[in-house]
Design goal:
With about 260 residues, the chain is an alpha+beta fold. It is built from four helices and 17 strands. A six-stranded antiparallel barrel has the order 12-13-14-17-16-15. A four-stranded antiparallel sheet has the order 3-2-6-7, with helices on one face. The longest helix has 23 residues, at about 240-260.
């Protein structure tokens, strides 16, 4: 029944080549928020195609409810949402003025407020319409500068969560929030949004452990055979964070000295 309802709302596939492009970050907005309407529209379309599980929360309530985005109407600037589970969340959705939807896209957590909620039904199945958000919390880019690791002897290792395969390589650059490394096996089937577990690098003879969420995969301009993987840190200790901060600060000081020389 869910599939029938989703197909009922499903919009025709866009024919414009520009609409088929991969989602690009909104460079004009703040680092954490997407505000350009066309970018928000494209992001919502991408999410609706994946049909991920979404979470609805309400102000002054600890309860969480599950739903999904059935369709995105770009002409009317409206989202079509499935019924909430548990069921009592549907009444709250219509009664509460402040509600928030959150989900994951390409491994990145995003969230936005829902406004102007309206109830509807098709073939006896309820659904809800909401206006497009004016902004979306979508932290896509690193907040701190990346420092290139020249002639690197820092090696990366971890295990891809989806198939338990070993992932390894040489660190290319690093920031306080993430890392980029050159894959030892350029044919590795990593994808954006994948999680690499039990990662480790050794900084000044001290091992740092963390998980990594893949944000980008590509080939550097300088080489057609190498594959770079970029991601951001997850699940590491405050001690590891302090060590990374200390290491990055030391590299930054070296760069500053070179500029002054």
């Amino acid at each position: 029944m869910f599939t029938a309802l989703k197909n009922f709302f499903k919009s025709p596939e866009p024919k414009n080549d520009e609409q088929e492009e991969e989602f690009e970050p909104d460079l004009k907005s703040s680092a954490n928020f997407l505000t350009e309407p066309s970018k928000i529209s494209k992001l919502l379309l991408d999410i609706s195609k994946e049909s991920p599980l979404c979470t609805i929360t309400f102000q002054d309530s600890a309860d969480q409810f599950s739903t999904s985005i059935l369709d995105v109407n770009t002409d009317k600037k409206q989202l079509i949402l499935d019924e909430l589970m548990p069921n009592y969340g549907n009444d709250l959705l219509l009664e509460t003025s402040v509600s928030k939807l959150s989900t994951y896209h390409d491994g990145i957590h995003l969230a936005f407020n829902l406004k102007n909620i309206q109830h509807g039904s098709s073939h006896g199945i309820a659904y809800y319409k909401a206006n497009f958000p004016e902004r979306v919390f979508y932290p896509q880019r690193r907040q701190s500068p990346r420092i290139k690791i020249k002639t690197s002897t820092i090696f990366f290792s971890g295990m891809a969560e989806k198939n338990n395969s070993t992932v390894s390589g040489k660190v290319y650059d690093m920031s306080r929030e993430g890392i980029c490394f050159i894959l030892a096996n350029p044919h590795s089937r990593l994808q954006r949004g994948d999680i690499i577990k039990n990662c480790s690098v050794t900084l000044e003879k001290e091992q740092i452990n963390f998980d990594l969420i893949v944000r980008s995969i590509g080939k550097p301009i300088s080489s057609s055979s190498e594959v770079n993987v970029g991601g951001y840190f997850e699940n590491f200790t405050s001690k590891s964070l302090n060590k990374i901060n200390y290491f990055i600060a030391a590299l930054e000081r070296k760069e500053i000295r070179k500029l002054k020389a």
